[in-house]
Specification:
Length: 754
């Protein structure tokens, strides 16, 4: 048809030049009109082929938390995606957030791309699988799509940059804009406060909006809508890729009281009964086979009936908060999906929804009200938390629920995030793509892994992985496209094998069999206890067959070593939270012993490593009057950290050890005019020392710090000349950022060698 039209216009058909002159002209005009209609039609069809892509990633949400996966928690918007798309019940990720995100964005195994552990830990060139950053030889899906004329946006949690690069001066090549995204708004670290987050816009830090009832999840969706709105208004013909990664459902679990009240009384049945009810709903929904059994209660989790009334009341409040938090998150997802629908792009957009790992064990057995205690190995008790029960979910706490509720979240599986048992790695996956998926509202049970998502979207977009990006040769994708499952519900999985490793916790899935090891830190790897399961007929992995089939177990162990070697997972790392105190050989910032910060420096996440060593902080200042006061330096928040400040003409130093505050108030006033103030910490023992304050080299106060934090202070970051986010000291908590109103030249840290 098109060829005929072209021939007619070109005059190759025989027209009588005189008698048909006007007829030919009129015919040409009509043909041009027809061609225009064809061209417009073809352009629309081409645009449909160039579909938009959206990844929606939740954090620390287990297999059973969504309504469409068996939960009593209200998630109608996510449920709608499932009802109009496909749900997968045999989808797996890595046991931690950074590795999963690296695999999701690259389509490769996490050790191969350098993200064997959290991005906080760069273990140096001797452990290439754990460098805390994505290798440049593993281009992200954003980089690939950008080269194919997509606009690319990232909003929310990143956690793919080494800590020592999270500075206001960069380097920025491992920030989102350095990994293929055109625009970014969110937070670089693994978690942040929902009411007062540490935010980054593109390549610079910004403060959260100062407005009543602010919540991070709402802010993230506001920016997601803004980015897409800007794009669609100016370049409607271009497709876009949106990576929307919520801070929810990671702790801190924070949401307004109205959402918590939605679930008042829902959880007085206790976690044992709620877990049983979820399994029954999962069976009725077809999310799990009808013969699925609940795994036994995880070690250390008490039977609900044996708890005291106070414990029950406290633990119910933790779960009411978590449930309200998830419902609030669901509402924000609904806002974004409704926006896509309103601009006519929902049918043309492939939405991929998943969680980055299973539910968190980091709330310990009694729950926690702040993050630092867990990451420093400091125990908490229900008795100490109970007086603050009404604060849970509000701005004065940063809570995480007890492990009993985490096991509910992971129903029907055992254990949690950080482990290679299915409680850590088996999560929901939903594909929503009206222009492609026709068998909507159904469930797929093929085994797949997070490395398979990006190959799927590239396959659907008709895009091949480039051999080079920015002149760097690219490693092949490790995942396989899942598109084959869209039309054939019962088709055999095309994935045969997948290894798992987190620190020294190992697992291998191969052709329906799964072997899992449990490693006790500090013991020889050869002493690890292995379990063996046939997942084809034991969905929840309750029947250990290791003793019955030792040959099969040995076969899978051999396969694990083969896969681990192929994908760069060796050597194994027998460490965990103590790595927060580790300084990489490549860390040119924290490997120094002298740090000088100047007025006006932006919020800084790469703070000096003061752990278990002597150091001094020196600040030359000028006070024009007795009214000159404020913060000189602050790191942390109201739960942990340190601050040096002047108030009421006195010099103060405070060190907050998860609620125990060591405080010095100078016995002399800070003079008007120029002076030099400094704080000296002299180590006297393991994680102990004496703190002293000086004004012009005259000691004006001291305190014995009987305990200091061993590994981790806070993800809050460091501020110079103010305390910009959550205040470290109650003394100035109601005074905004309490910026120093005098002048200072610099803040200088000098650290002694370890």
């Amino acid at each position: 048809m098109i060829l005929t039209i072209v021939l007619l216009i070109s005059g190759l058909f025989n027209f009588d030049e005189y008698e048909c002159k006007f007829t030919r002209f009129n015919l040409q005009i009509e043909i041009v009109s027809v061609i225009n209609r064809f061209v417009i039609l073809d352009l629309k069809e081409i645009m449909k082929m160039k579909n938009n892509i959206v990844y929606i990633v939740l954090d620390d949400m287990g297999f059973s938390d969504l309504g469409c996966y068996g939960s009593e928690i209200k998630t109608p918007n996510i449920d709608r995606l499932a009802q109009n798309g496909l749900s997968y019940n045999n989808f797996h990720v890595t046991p931690l957030c950074s590795p999963t995100r690296a695999s999701l964005l690259t389509g490769r195994n996490h050790h191969s791309v350098g993200m064997g552990l959290l991005s906080n830990f760069d273990l140096g060139p001797d452990v290439p699988g754990s460098r805390g950053k994505i290798s440049s030889s593993a281009g992200t899906v954003a980089e690939i799509l950008k080269e194919n004329d997509y606009s690319t946006f990232a909003v929310g949690k990143w956690h793919l940059t080494p800590t020592y690069e999270e500075t206001p001066a960069g380097p920025f090549h491992n920030w989102p804009l350095g990994k293929g995204f055109d625009r970014y708004y969110g937070f670089l670290e693994g978690m942040t406060d929902q009411y007062n987050p540490s935010l980054v816009y593109d390549n610079h830090s910004v403060e959260p909006p100062k407005k009543p009832d602010y919540h991070l999840s709402e802010d993230l969706v506001d920016h997601s809508i803004k980015f897409v709105s800007d794009h669609a208004s100016i370049f409607p013909e271009k497709p876009f890729f949106m990576y929307l990664a919520f801070g929810a459902q990671h702790s801190p679990h924070q949401v307004s009281q109205s959402y918590i009240d939605m679930y008042k009384g829902t959880y007085n049945k206790g976690w044992d009964r709620i877990r049983e009810e979820r399994l029954e709903r999962q069976k009725s929904l077809g999310i799990v086979p009808n013969d699925t059994e609940l795994t036994e209660r995880n070690p250390g989790v008490k039977e609900w009936g044996n708890l005291t009334p106070d414990e029950k009341r406290l633990f119910e409040r933790f779960q009411e908060t978590y449930a309200g938090f998830l419902t609030h998150t669901d509402e924000q997802i609904g806002r974004f999906v409704d926006f896509l629908d309103a601009i006519g792009q929902l049918d043309n957009t492939m939405i991929v929804f998943l969680s980055d790992n299973g539910a968190s064990q980091e709330g310990e057995f009694d729950g926690i009200l702040e993050q630092t205690s867990y990451f420093n190995g400091i125990p908490t008790t229900a008795e100490s938390i109970l007086p603050l029960i009404d604060e849970i979910g509000g701005p004065n706490t940063q809570p995480n629920y007890p492990r009993g509720w985490a096991q509910v979240s992971n129903t029907p599986f055992k254990f949690y995030k950080q482990t290679t048992f299915d409680g850590g790695i088996h999560v929901p996956l939903i594909y929503h793509f009206p222009n492609r998926i026709k068998d909507v509202g159904t469930i797929r049970n093929q085994f797949h892994h997070v490395i398979d998502v990006t190959p799927t979207v590239l396959d659907l977009a008709g895009i091949s992985t480039p051999e080079e990006i920015k002149g760097i040769k690219q490693m092949p994708l490790h995942g396989v496209s899942m598109e084959y499952t869209f039309d054939e519900p019962k088709v055999q999985t095309r994935r045969e094998t997948q290894y798992f490793l987190m620190a020294a916790q190992r697992a291998i899935w191969h052709e329906g069999w799964k072997a899992i090891s449990f490693h006790t830190k500090g013991t020889p790897y050869e002493d690890d206890q292995w379990n063996l399961y046939n997942t084809n007929n034991d969905f929840s992995q309750t029947n250990d067959l290791a003793a019955k089939f030792p040959e099969k177990l040995a076969e899978l162990q051999d396969i694990w070593f083969r896969e681990a070697e192929e994908y760069g997972a060796l050597p194994m790392v027998d460490k965990s939270i103590e790595l927060f105190a580790y300084v990489s050989p490549d860390d040119k910032v924290r490997s120094r012993t002298e740090f000088t910060y100047y007025p006006g420096m932006s919020h800084n996440l790469a703070a000096p490593p003061i752990f278990n060593r002597s150091y001094t902080i020196t600040v030359p200042i000028e006070r024009p009057s007795k009214d000159s006061e404020g913060v000189l330096i602050a790191h942390g928040n109201q739960n942990s950290g340190y601050t040096l400040y002047i108030q009421n003409n006195r010099l103060f130093y405070e060190y907050n050890y998860v609620g125990t505050v060591y405080k010095i108030e100078s016995n002399l006033e800070v003079p008007v005019g120029k002076s030099t103030v400094h704080y000296d910490f002299s180590k006297t023992g393991l994680l102990q020392g004496k703190g002293s304050l000086f004004i012009d080299n005259h000691q004006v106060g001291e305190v014995d710090l009987q305990r200091t934090l061993p590994f981790f202070i806070s993800v809050e970051g460091l501020d110079v000349g103010r305390d910009a986010y959550l205040p470290v000291s109650k003394n100035y908590a109601d005074m905004g950022d309490f910026a120093f109103s005098g002048n200072f030249q610099k803040v200088e840290f000098i650290l002694q060698k370890d």
